[in-house]
């Protein structure tokens, strides 16, 4: 039976403690460049330090994934720990070319068998996918069985999110239909999603005030929940607004006492594109009961 490792990247939002508890999951780190300095997410800069610097930065930050050679070196390190195969789960190809480039390059890497997976998203739902894959590997599922189950699982993922200011997304070219919002960025709170075939960020609605926008995405989630025949897990995450996430969880826990609700904060790489005070409501099928 193969000993299978799970590799992911720092946009998953997984902490060192969570990775250590899994025991068979490992994480590479994306970079963010700001004010002429490079930082490895989760290593060289904390979330609080990043958002503090972002608030006073004259230039918008840029981000970069590990190089292909860095990925190969990392896989070598995982192999040296005694693993026979790797399932490598990463940020959606809808907003970065990292997954596609990695998939193409793997044909030239034969030190250990690597199965690359496009998560269709990032942040907490991707972290949950990693936890699920880790659990499956630890109970002895084969790589083909794990890949089939996580493919099914990632197709249950959905999300809506709201940013306080579109300038970061527009500047970085991550918003597909940015032209539709030109001239009204300061007057609206756009509702965004990646629930489309290409998993790109698309604005779906224009709503005045954050309060109304939050109620809108909650109603959208409720519509999904009522049409779903399995238990859902809710992910509430934001940028530099943990207290707001805690209050949001408290309110939704009253409405959904039967659902597990996770809260979290988005790190520098995704935060560089969303800016401060973004709100994300995500969900996926419940497969880990804790």
Automatic annotation (TrEMBL):
Keywords: Lipid-binding. PROSITE patterns: DEGV. It comes from the Bacteria. Transmembrane segments: none annotated. One of its GO terms (molecular function) is lipid binding. Pfam families: DegV. May bind long-chain fatty acids, such as palmitate, and may play a role in lipid transport or fatty acid metabolism. NCBIfam families: DegV. This is DegV family protein.
């Amino acid at each position: 039976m193969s000993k299978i490792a799970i590799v992911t990247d720092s946009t998953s939002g997984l902490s060192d403690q969570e990775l250590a508890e899994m025991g068979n999951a490992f994480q590479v780190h994306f970079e963010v460049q700001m004010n002429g300095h490079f930082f490895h997410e989760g290593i060289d800069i904390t979330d609080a330090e990043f958002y503090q610097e972002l608030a006073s930065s004259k230039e918008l930050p840029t981000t970069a994934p590990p190089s292909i050679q860095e990925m190969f070196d990392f896989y070598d390190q995982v192999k040296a720990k005694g693993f026979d195969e790797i399932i490598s789960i990463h940020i959606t190809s809808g907003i970065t070319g990292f997954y596609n480039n990695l998939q193409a390059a793997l044909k030239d890497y034969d030190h250990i068998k690597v199965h690359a997976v496009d998560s269709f998203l990032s942040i907490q739902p991707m972290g949950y996918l990693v936890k699920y894959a880790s659990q499956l590997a630890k109970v002895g599922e084969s790589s083909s069985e794990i890949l089939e189950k996580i493919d099914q699982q990632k197709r249950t993922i959905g999300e809506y999110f709201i940013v306080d200011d579109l300038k970061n997304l527009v500047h970085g070219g991550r918003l597909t239909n940015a032209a539709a919002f030109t001239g009204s960025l300061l007057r609206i709170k756009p509702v965004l999603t990646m629930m489309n075939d290409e998993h790109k960020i698309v604005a779906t609605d224009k709503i005045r005030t954050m309060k109304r926008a939050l109620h809108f995405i909650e109603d959208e989630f409720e519509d999904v929940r009522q049409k779903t025949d399995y238990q859902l897990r809710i992910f509430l995450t934001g940028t530099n607004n943990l207290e707001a996430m805690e209050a949001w969880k408290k309110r939704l826990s009253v409405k959904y006492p039967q659902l597990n609700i996770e809260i979290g904060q988005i790190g520098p790489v995704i935060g560089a594109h969303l800016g401060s005070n973004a709100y994300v409501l995500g969900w996926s099928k419940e497969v880990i009961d804790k």
